[in-house]
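A reminder from the course coordinator: this example appears on the midterm review sheet, so study it carefully.

Given structure:
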């Protein structure tokens, strides 16, 4: 089990969509904390890829989300909807081979 950060940004600010994503997180992660309006920290054995697969169906092309493991000395992250410059920066920060 490890802590993961889940953050998302919806192109169109829809309360229904926010609520649905939040409900999916609540249903799947018993140890969780909603830090900001669209940012959660969860404790789970799910990988970043597992969490991405769980949430991705609720996002549209214009939306963005980031899932990263909050680990000591080991980096893992998955993101969606970021442009090439943003993705390059995240690859460097998380030291993920391209």
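Designed residues:
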């Amino acid at each position: 089990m490890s802590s993961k950060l889940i953050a998302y940004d919806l192109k169109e600010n829809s309360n229904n969509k926010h609520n649905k994503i939040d409900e999916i997180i609540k249903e799947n992660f018993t140890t969780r904390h909603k830090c900001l309006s669209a940012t959660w920290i969860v404790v789970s054995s799910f990988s970043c890829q597992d969490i991405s697969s769980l949430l991705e169906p609720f996002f549209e092309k214009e939306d963005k989300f980031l899932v990263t493991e909050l680990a000591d000395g080991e980096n893992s992250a998955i993101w969606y909807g970021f442009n090439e410059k943003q993705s390059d920066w995240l690859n460097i920060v998380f030291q993920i081979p391209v």
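The CA atoms of residues 31 and 43 lie 5 Å apart. The longest strand covers residues 2-9.
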